[in-house]
UniProtKB/TrEMBL annotation:
Fe cation binds at H81, H83, H125, E127. InterPro entries: Pirin, Pirin_C_dom, Pirin_N_dom, RmlC-like_jellyroll, RmlC_Cupin_sf. GO terms for molecular function: metal ion binding. The keyword Calcium does not apply. Pfam families: Pirin, Pirin_C. PANTHER family: PIRIN (PTHR13903:SF8), PIRIN-RELATED (PTHR13903). This is Pirin. It comes from Micromonospora auratinigra. Its cofactor is Fe cation. Coiled coil: none annotated.
Amino acid sequence: MPAITVDDVLVLPRLPRLDESTTFRPVRRLTTAPSGYEGEGFPVRRAFAGVPMTDLDPFIHLDQMGEVDYAPGEPKGTPWHPHRGFETVTYMIDGIMDHQDSQGGGGTITDGDTQWMTAGSGLLHIEAPPEHLVMSGGLFHGLQLWVNLPRVAKMNPPRYQDIRGKESALLTTPDGGALIRVIAGEIAGHRGPGSTHTPITITHVTLQPGAELSLPWRPDFNALVYVLAGRGTVGTERRPIGTGQLAVHGAGDALRVTADPTQDGNTPALELYIMGGQPIREPVAHYGPFVMNTRAELIQAVEDFQAGRLGVIPTGRLPHTGGAAS
């Protein structure tokens, strides 16, 4: 799980030691993501399955894509498809993914890079592995997070951000037991590169066996801890948690996660994707690739798409390699 890393975490800035007055957030809910297949056999874990929208707000959906080692000719992408009313945040851990949209946005991400697409008023886009990866096969592993937009921003012009992994703010714990990559928002004064409409924080944490993470967290944000790989405990109550599980936290000032001293031979550390944001607290009307506030707005989005008002597929477009829209 390469993402972005450093040779020596001890050279990085460190989290502050939290004092005794810190209120650690309790774990309110622990769920296990169901595994399934999309399209022509693309494996995913639906990380938010079974979690009420009120616990997720401002997030809508999270897929863990892979981890899968493709044979030559097997890698798959998506067809051209629309979005309106939210943002997609695609974080690539292993492998390569190309993106192109009808507004001129696009790029290639690999090993810790992020594509941040604000759909806003609407566009068409496609995600596909490059031709050389289709030919060779190889490891593929990533995440796609959907972030809601407030009513006032849902019809903003679309925007695309290409965030290199090396741009993430990197820090560690006081004892050097973790590598913390801040992708968006701020942790202990260290700000990530992602520019967001909705105030949120996203971080990918690698926690070494036996290490403990005491992570300060904005009290007005919700807090979701998803395990990409490994085993450990979460909360001061030390509830066991492992690969594919999500911990939804209650109120407080900080999160606590501890890695088990012994990890699986294929998973040398506990890998966490931690998200939180300021709840929007608006009605959510969700249908396929559209996230609006009312049913009437959803109907309008479908009509606009069918009428070609969300954009047209550009010339010189990426090829469709099969699979389902995301």
